[in-house]
């Protein structure tokens, strides 16, 4: 089921046998000028693996959302199913496009000017889906988190996944690229410390993970380089990667993530390169 | 001794006991608008470890220099000491600034328009000192070798070293940065495949490896952010890293390179971060 609470999208897939359990949480921030509702098909995939998903519409208030979570916002939310609890010791933060950058900024503790004092909510993992930090290295959005020094994200051993799109750095018509070189997935990956994972959906574009019925596609096609393959395969592939990453670092089971990395589990679209840096060896 | 041949700087440090031996070669390309003669103090350091150094003045003719080498140019050069031979099975290619990019382009086989057909000279290693690929990701010099995809340099298992400067991405006065974010050492490193090594001289600038008596320093100080520490320590540190890398991959002795990586051998200036990616584990 999905509910809109305080401009947030709350997604919880509860099966009868799970009622009474405690579930990990995925916080997801949408991209610039887009709606959280455009991601429900992707997020339902993740939610169905029994994660509580909180996807606020207002990404500029990321720190307030984090504060709301730690203060028990979910448990006091009337639309939360009874006997369902959020496990606030297992919260991953994620996002797409500028929301991917917001996720990193929140994990790094780089707050907006009017944010509350750093909250005590600790994240267990961070995940950027085609994250974007501005329009060029010299024109980045605040807070500026990229330093252009490899492995500079000061996240200790927090696990990181970066998923890029191969067409995101291409322009469409007169529109500049939506995920330009120098501020996109490649640099986010470069600044990540192990343990970290990189996946490139090489034949898809920056908007190809939206719902079929989400955005006005006739507009998207004019401003965004899109892939020629079926979008449901893109969403399934991204969903699978997200779930495998969460399973590994929130659930303690690395089997599927390892399968994706060593390519024994094949995605339905071309994911290349896939790179993993383990903390023990790199 | 150092000689200028065909606009080239040839540096050979021969001790009596070495005459009659065969020596590995380091090809070095200078930066944009600067002279190869400004690097002699740095290059003498490397040369003293018994490498033949060829540092042409004309970097736009990199492929022709490579062709000249393979056709025995060095052995027919009248100023080469008698009984000294170049080992063309052990040639590393390197450079500073735009010359660093030239080194990568030559190793990658990305030729200038008027270059001879790809030569049969195979490089054993490539080394970029604060390499620069243009003024921004959207304004790169030809040939465009950066793809903004991690590990995209198609160099098989050729070992790579990238040395960056921490101040190279800062502007000085009204002059833009000489090694701008998005086209500098960080992205060259990001596109390198293992085995590869990254070193950042974090408190020095893009020009701090020039000779003391080389460039007009009063001009350099106006256009280039320079470090406050002694430049001879910068040259010694860079020279030491270059020699350790060549020893490892041209000489087969990884001891000093490993010492630098695990910081048991300490450089006289701050080198941080130091990152190594081994082909076996990463």
TrEMBL record, chains A, B:
One of its GO terms (biological process) is chlorophyll catabolic process. SUPFAM superfamilies: alpha/beta-Hydrolases. GO terms for molecular function: chlorophyllase activity. This is Chlorophyllase.
């Amino acid at each position: 089921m999905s509910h809109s609470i305080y401009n947030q999208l709350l997604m919880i897939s509860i099966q009868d046998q799970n009622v009474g359990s405690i579930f990990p949480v995925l916080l997801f921030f949408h991209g610039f000028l887009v709606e959280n509702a455009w991601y429900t098909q992707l997020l339902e995939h993740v939610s169905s693996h029994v994660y509580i998903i909180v996807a606020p519409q207002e990404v500029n208030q990321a720190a307030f959302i984090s504060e709301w979570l730690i203060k028990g916002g979910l448990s006091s939310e009337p639309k939360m199913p009874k006997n369902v609890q959020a496990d606030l010791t297992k919260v991953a933060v994620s996002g797409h496009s500028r929301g991917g950058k917001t996720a990193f900024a929140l994990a790094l503790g780089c707050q907006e000017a009017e944010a509350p004092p750093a909250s005590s909510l600790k994240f267990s993992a961070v995940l950027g889906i085609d994250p974007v930090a501005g329009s060029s290295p010299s024109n980045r959005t605040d807070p500026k988190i990229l330093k252009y020094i490899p492995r500079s994200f000061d996240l200790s051993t927090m696990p990181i996944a970066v998923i890029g799109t191969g067409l995101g750095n291409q322009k469409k018509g007169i529109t500049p690229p939506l995920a330009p070189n120098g501020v996109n997935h490649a640099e986010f990956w470069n600044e990540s410390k192990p343990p970290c994972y990189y996946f490139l959906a090489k034949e898809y574009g920056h908007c190809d993970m939206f719902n079929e019925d989400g955005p006005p596609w006739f507009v998207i096609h004019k401003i965004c380089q899109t892939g020629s393959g079926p979008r449901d395969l893109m969403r399934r592939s991204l969903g699978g990667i997200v779930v495998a990453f969460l399973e590994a670092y929130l659930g303690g089971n690395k089997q599927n993530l390892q399968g994706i990395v060593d390519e024994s589990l094949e995605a339905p679209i071309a994911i290349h390169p896939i790179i993993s840096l383990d903390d023990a060896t790199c």
